[in-house]
């Protein structure tokens, strides 16, 4: 995750990916839906007409390198929205721009090309090729692109090491645990070095420890090779761990988009408030939000502005006065009142 997005989410760079007024409705054709006035698109009107508004008027921008998490209860429209973004499902209405180009206007051929070269995808249940080894599965997308097998396998080997599968390259999918299979899926989705990485509930079927391992893996990969990531989950804990920003969906609509800190400290609706109620503020509130700006000399020690209050708990406990706050480069940009930070640390704990 890059610090820039915590401070000014989505505003510093031109959007890598943008959805404008995206709708996906089931139960009517796009033509007749397009003629509906706004009043006939309200949730009650859709329900009365027996139309499922799986995604309703989704509009957002995702900055390059951002981890954007789509979260919501089962049936809220997360998967459908993700599939609209990749055009695995044809939206009923709206626009989806990659670097300013609307992919809904692309020919099938151009779309396949953009998916192969620029997008990587991981799903909860996706088919590994049963007759290919781990190495063969991971090399597969490159072979599809026409890369000679030996070269593709050399690249695959690098990824095997990256995702911690070294020593298992000759195994077949049936000989792997669920967590290992997901690691193969992750590696396979990254062989082409995609700029955009889409993950749809990739860890939901795994037990909590393996799940935490793989979340850490995603964060580690993101630190070494930054991509624009769209991650779908119904697990708020996972969302908070991974996200620069989270979009919360309810009944097909995005009800709030914000950093984890914004959602916890300023929930826009009761629905969001109930979702985030169990999250201790210290886990999401950043030092930068509580500090008083100050220019100082090079401080001998201090805490990073981008850290959460939980992350600096040891420093807070041992400090005797205000703590210098440092930017990523180690320059002092503020001062943190210890008492104020301790109040946040205690809240909800
Ligand atoms: N092909 C389809 N035909 C009709 N309705 C559909 C279809 N696909 C999805 N829906 C409906 O659209 C809504 C959103 O579904 P979606 O799968 O996107 O939700 P979700 O938030 O991803 O749920 P989950 O967490 O359970 O996967 C649901 O009401 C679902 O029943």
From TrEMBL:
<feature type="domain" description="ABC transporter">
    <location>
        <begin position="40"/>
        <end position="276"/>
    </location>
</feature>
<protein>
    <recommendedName>
        <fullName>Trimethylamine N-oxide transport system ATP-binding protein TmoW</fullName>
        <ecNumber>7.6.2.9</ecNumber>
    </recommendedName>
</protein>
<dbReference type="GO" id="GO:0006970">
    <property type="term" value="P:response to osmotic stress"/>
</dbReference>
<dbReference type="InterPro" id="IPR051921">
    <property type="entry name" value="ABC_osmolyte_uptake_ATP-bind"/>
</dbReference>
<dbReference type="GO" id="GO:0015418">
    <property type="term" value="F:ABC-type quaternary ammonium compound transporting activity"/>
</dbReference>
<keyword id="KW-0614">Plasmid</keyword>
<dbReference type="InterPro" id="IPR003593">
    <property type="entry name" value="AAA+_ATPase"/>
</dbReference>
<comment type="similarity">
    <text>Belongs to the ABC transporter superfamily.</text>
</comment>
<comment type="subunit">
    <text>The complex is probably composed of two ATP-binding proteins (TmoW), two transmembrane proteins (TmoV) and a solute-binding protein (TmoX).</text>
</comment>
<dbReference type="Pfam" id="PF00005">
    <property type="entry name" value="ABC_tran"/>
</dbReference>
<dbReference type="InterPro" id="IPR027417">
    <property type="entry name" value="P-loop_NTPase"/>
</dbReference>
<keyword id="KW-0067">ATP-binding</keyword>
<dbReference type="GO" id="GO:0005524">
    <property type="term" value="F:ATP binding"/>
</dbReference>
<keyword id="KW-0547">Nucleotide-binding</keyword>
<keyword id="KW-0813">Transport</keyword>
<dbReference type="InterPro" id="IPR003439">
    <property type="entry name" value="ABC_transporter-like_ATP-bd"/>
</dbReference>
<dbReference type="InterPro" id="IPR017871">
    <property type="entry name" value="ABC_transporter-like_CS"/>
</dbReference>
